[in-house]
């Protein structure tokens, strides 16, 4: 069971992630790196939606595994896009190198915090 210290620590890490992404935009006067926030916020949604849509059966273990695999694929796509987008913007000389590094690190902190929140506060199913 997650306690108050876990909530405070995860909120602190989430705030640092948002701060890094916002600073990567504000310090370098280019707000294209804010797109990383959108990709990392959207990233867990396919896992959640496809996990709910799969509705695994008690008698068949493999029921709905294609839907779950598709959700994992989309989540992986969004996570890779969150890293690749700043690299692409840096390669095309749209953003500076420091902005790319701050954006990637901040985005990964945001995604890790969102995933940690879902892992720590998952409801246990009882049969």
What is the compact description of this entry?
By secondary structure, this protein is an all-alpha fold.
Description of the molecule:
The protein is an all-alpha fold and 127 residues long. It has one domain. Helices cover 73% and strands 0% of the residues. Helix 2 (35-42) packs parallel to helix 5 (97-120). The longest helix is centred in the middle third of the chain and has 27 residues, at 65-91. The protein is flat. It is found in: Membrane. It is a multi-pass membrane protein. InterPro entries: Vps55/LEPROT. One of its GO terms (biological process) is late endosome to vacuole transport via multivesicular body sorting pathway. Belongs to the OB-RGRP/VPS55 family.
Would you spell out the secondary-structure blueprint of this structure?
Layout: H1 4-26, H2 35-42, H3 44-54, H4 65-91, H5 97-120
Helix pairs in contact: 1-5, 2-4, 2-5, 3-4, 4-5
Pfam family, one: Vps55
GO biological process, one term: late endosome to vacuole transport via multivesicular body sorting pathway
Organism: Clohesyomyces aquaticus
